[in-house]
Structures are given as C-alpha cells and as structure tokens.
Amino acid sequence: MFVEYIMIDGEPAKVIEIEDKYALAESARNFYILLEGSDGKHYVAVKLSKREYTLPDALKEFYDFVRV
Question: Of the N and C termini of the chain, which has fewer Cβ atoms inside 10 Å?
C-alpha cells in the first residue's frame, strides 16, 4: 500500500497516481515510477527528470510501464 508522501534520495515525493502495485510520485526535481515488492517495500523502478518530462509525459510513461 502506498502512502501519500514517500522519501526518495532524501527528498519528499508525493504519490500522484496508483495502479495496482505501481505508483507515480513527484518530487521537486523528478518523477518516479515505484513498485511494491512482495516484501511490502517500495522500490524505484524508473526515475524521470523534470528537465525532460512534464506531468502528462510522466503519466504516459507510467501507464506504458504498468501495461508492459
């Protein structure tokens, strides 16, 4: 289960989208595609820089990732 905020690399990231065992989180500098392992811990699967991705781009990447 994902919480509203999660610490990634020492900075807070807000979970903005959840799909099954995957989540998209946004920090000040990056978007992260997270996955929940069978151990219940959360792992960063993909890091997307805000220099290269906007929120719509990150959402597209997230749903492409989830459906693979």
Answer: C
Q: Report how far Cα 13 is from the mean position of its chain's Cα atoms.
A: 8
pLDDT tens readout for residues 4-17: 999 999 999 999 99
Q: Which residues contact 56 (CB under 8 A, 6 or more apart)?
A: none
Alpha carbon dihedral 18, 31, 6, 4, in 10-degree steps, equals: -40
- C-beta atoms surrounding 60 within 10 Å: 12
pLDDT value at 68 more than 80: no
What CA–CA distance (Å, rounded) separates 66 from 68? 6
pTM, two decimals, is: 0.92
For residues 59 and 26, is the Cβ–Cβ distance under 8 A? no
